[in-house]
Automatic annotation (TrEMBL):
The keyword Transmembrane helix applies. The lineage of its organism: Bacteria, Bacillati, Actinomycetota, Actinomycetes, Kitasatosporales. Gene3D superfamilies: Amino acid/polyamine transporter I. Keywords: Amino-acid transport, Cell membrane, Membrane, Transmembrane, Transmembrane helix, Transport. One of its GO terms (biological process) is transmembrane transport. Its main location: membrane. Residues 13-23 have a biased composition (Polar residues). GO terms for cellular component: plasma membrane. The chain crosses the membrane at residues 41-60, 66-85, 105-124, 144-168, 180-201, 221-241, 262-284, 296-321, 355-373, 379-403, 424-444, 450-469. Belongs to the amino acid-polyamine-organocation (APC) superfamily. Amino acid transporter (AAT) (TC 2.A.3.1) family. This is Alanine glycine permease. It comes from Wenjunlia tyrosinilytica. Residues 1-30 are annotated as: Disordered. The keyword Transmembrane helix applies. Residues 39-471 form the Amino acid permease/ SLC12A domain.
Length: 496
């Protein structure tokens, strides 16, 4: 929990010495158009993706009911990461978020690498998700060419992101609402089957299914641990709420609220849903590649179950692609503003959106759709698997930045944030060690280690780019100063 209620968050200061609410936040030229309702749903939607609706079926077949524990363990680590990010966000809420914090507390090289890596992560994720969305459409209209559906989705979502941040937030709100409604509906129906015994699953549905088929760890603790790397990447995009800091109406209030609700979101939407599904359907009935929601609906006897899940995963894919367009434009602009990317990306259109950065990112996503059409099992697999490494890198940079930030506060070099991460910096160290362990698990899994192959090439390219750009513009790569404590600042910057 926060040290004090969010509505008591101290307002930021103007250079004039006055205090205010959202207008007192660092202004980056964006429109602060994301309200509390939208931030909350973006945070919820970021924690619910196709990893739960589709990927969990494979993980269940490998680990059985113990997957519930793996999601709980990973959820605790994600909470540590997000509370670390929350403390940094209340220290200085900017749209560059973790790239900007890495630049400040770890050095310009790490900010450069983090910004470009997070941008590429969302580009390749967008490639995969828009392709997946076009595939889901074929469930109802098999004769529509896949490329045309993918192109239509890209154009529509590009328009949404170009028009205004308010429209992006509203679209994301309803995408998230669909996912939330589907999960809550599944939980309520499942509990009804378990409690009252109705439907075709009523005779076998029981919480005893969690341990009666060879125990809670039916395949062994080792195989259960191997699913941790699958589980962690179901949580990818949870950090997206940090990118909204530059456009939230009142980031010092809405962002901590969104982060503090993370435990119950994980508890309900992941752990709660899996408990109910595995109580309705024995883990022995699951097959790799089959959605656990489809299996549960089929067992209960809901004929439209497959269509419902297909619609939900379609919205989940479009939500991810929509978020990708949003974050890539902001990350490119942050890099450009800091002299670490082409200046053209720093421009905002008349609606205060980074149109050029979004356009370039969308064009690359469209190119990815073509690659997938030409070679669906070859080069595209290597490209999209990079998202795995990029996600871990981003989380690691958040944790390392937070550790260095805490050290700077202790040394009196940085202003102390009011929204402190409980147990820090030890919780950040624990989460960092956990991420290292995830990397080891990826290397041990022959099916997952492909994600490690493309990373050295990318980081080598970034290394060369960094030294070339630094040679051309040394000032852009100078160490960034932290915000000093109030008592150490000039009088006109002090709180009134």
């Amino acid at each position: 929990m926060a040290n004090r209620p969010s509505h008591h968050a101290p307002p930021a200061t103007h250079q004039s010495g006055t205090t205010s609410d959202s207008t007192a936040e660092p202004e980056e030229g964006y429109q602060r158009g994301l309200g509390s309702r939208q931030i909350q749903m973006i945070a919820i939607g970021g924690a619910i993706g196709t990893g739960l609706f589709l990927g969990a079926g494979t993980a269940i077949s490998k680990a059985g009911p113990s997957l519930i524990m793996m999601y709980a363990i990973a959820g605790v680590i994600i909470f540590f990461i997000m509370r670390a990010l929350g403390e940094l966000l209340t220290y200085r809420p900017v749209s560059g978020s973790f790239a900007d914090y890495a630049r400040e507390f770890l050095g310009p090289f790490f900010g450069f690498v983090t910004g470009w890596t997070y941008w590429l992560m969302w580009v390749v994720t967008g490639m995969a998700e828009v392709t997946a969305a076009a595939t889901y459409i074929k469930y109802w209209w098999p004769h529509i060419p896949q490329w045309s559906s993918a192109l239509a989705f890209l154009v529509v979502l590009f328009a949404v992101n170009l028009i205004s941040v308010k429209l992006f937030g509203e679209v994301e709100f309803w995408f998230s609402m669909i996912k939330v409604t589907a999960i809550i509906g599944m939980i309520l129906i499942g509990l009804g089957v378990i409690t009252f015994g109705f439907s075709a699953a009523g005779d076998t549905a029981s919480f005893s299914n969690l341990w009666s088929h060879d125990g809670f760890f039916p395949t062994g603790v080792g195989k259960s641990l191997m699913t941790l790397q699958i589980v962690m990447f179901a949580y990818l995009a949870v950090e997206l709420v940090g990118v909204t800091a530059g456009e939230a109406e009142n980031p010092r209030e809405t962002l901590p609220k969104a982060i503090n609700t993370l435990p119950w979101r994980i508890g309900v939407f992941y752990i709660g849903a899996l408990i109910v599904i595995l109580a309705v359907v024995s883990w022995t009935d699951f097959e790799p590649g089959v959605s656990p929601f489809v299996a549960a609906f089929a067992k209960i006897g809901i004929p439209a179950g497959a269509a419902i899940v297909n619609f939900v995963v379609l919205t989940a894919a479009l939500s991810s692609c929509n978020s990708g367009m949003y974050s890539t434009g902001r990350m490119l602009r942050d890099l450009a503003v800091n002299g670490q990317g082409p200046r053209v990306f720093a421009k905002l259109n008349s609606r205060q959106t980074p149109a050029v950065g979004i356009l370039v990112s969308v064009a690359l996503m469209g190119f990815g759709v073509w690659i997938n059409y030409v070679d669906p099992e070859g080069a595209f697999t290597y490209i999209t698997s990079f998202a795995t490494v990029a996600g871990v890198w981003t989380w690691a940079m958040i944790l390392l930045s937070h550790i260095r930030y805490r050290a700077a506060v202790k040394a009196g070099r940085a202003q102390e944030a009011w929204f402190k991460a409980p147990g820090a910096p030890w919780t950040s160290w624990i989460a960092l060690v956990f991420l290292v362990g995830v990397f080891v698990l990826i290397g041990l899994d022959k099916d997952a280690r492909i994600s490690l192959y493309s990373a050295p090439v990318w980081f080598a390219v970034l290394g060369v780019g960094y030294y070339v750009l630094r040679g051309r513009n040394p000032d852009a790569f100078a160490p960034k100063e932290s915000i000093p404590p109030v008592k150490d600042r000039e009088p006109e910057f002090a709180q009134s």
